[in-house]
UniProtKB/TrEMBL annotation:
Database matches in PANTHER family: SIGNAL RECOGNITION PARTICLE 19 KD PROTEIN (PTHR17453), SIGNAL RECOGNITION PARTICLE 19 KDA PROTEIN (PTHR17453:SF0)
GO CC terms, sorted: signal recognition particle
One GO term (biological process): SRP-dependent cotranslational protein targeting to membrane, signal sequence recognition
Superkingdom of this protein's organism: Archaea
Single annotated GO MF: 7S RNA binding
Main localization (coarse): cytoplasm
Record field: transmembrane: none
The protein's name: Signal recognition particle 19 kDa protein
SUPFAM superfamilies per UniProt: SRP19 (SSF69695)
Subcellular location(s) per record: Cytoplasm
Species of origin: Methanocella conradii (strain DSM 24694 / JCM 17849 / CGMCC 1.5162 / HZ254)
Gene that specifies this protein: srp19
UniProt family annotation: Belongs to the SRP19 family.
Subunit structure: Part of the signal recognition particle protein translocation system, which is composed of SRP and FtsY. Archaeal SRP consists of a 7S RNA molecule of 300 nucleotides and two protein subunits: SRP54 and SRP19.
Keywords, alphabetical: Cytoplasm, Ribonucleoprotein, RNA-binding, Signal recognition particle
C-alpha cells in the first residue's frame, strides 16, 4: 500500500478544464491561450500524453470541483516537471493531433 501511495504522489492530475479555451484563467484554465483548445476530451488528453511519454491513466466518473455536476473524468500523468510546462506541452500536442486547430 505504501508503495502505491508513493507512486500516486508522483502523478499530476489533468482536468480538461485546465486546457479549455472556453474558460478564463480565473475560471480554471491553467494554460496560455496559444496552448489551449476548445472543449478538450479526456481521450484527447490521454492520447497527447501518451505521445509525450507521460504514461496517462484515465479516471472516469470524476468531476472537477468547480463543475461537480459534469463527470467528464480526468487524466493522471507522470510528474516529470512543472505542471504548467507539462500542460502547455499537452495542449500543443492536442492542437497538433487536431491538425492545427484549437
Amino acid at each position: 500500500m505504501q508503495k502505491e501511495e508513493m507512486k500516486r504522489s508522483k502523478r499530476i492530475v489533468v482536468w480538461p478544464i485546465y486546457l479549455d479555451l472556453n474558460y478564463s484563467r480565473s475560471k480554471g484554465r491553467l494554460t496560455r491561450k496559444e496552448c489551449s483548445v476548445r472543449a478538450p476530451k479526456v481521450s484527447e488528453i490521454k492520447r497527447a500524453a501518451e505521445s509525450l511519454g507521460l504514461h496517462p491513466e484515465i479516471e472516469a466518473d470524476k468531476a472537477h470541483p468547480s463543475t461537480w455536476w459534469d463527470k467528464e473524468g480526468r487524466v493522471t500523468i507522470d510528474n516529470v516537471g512543472p505542471k504548467t510546462v507539462l500542460l502547455d506541452k499537452i495542449g500543443v500536442e492536442i492542437i497538433r493531433l487536431r491538425g492545427g486547430k484549437q
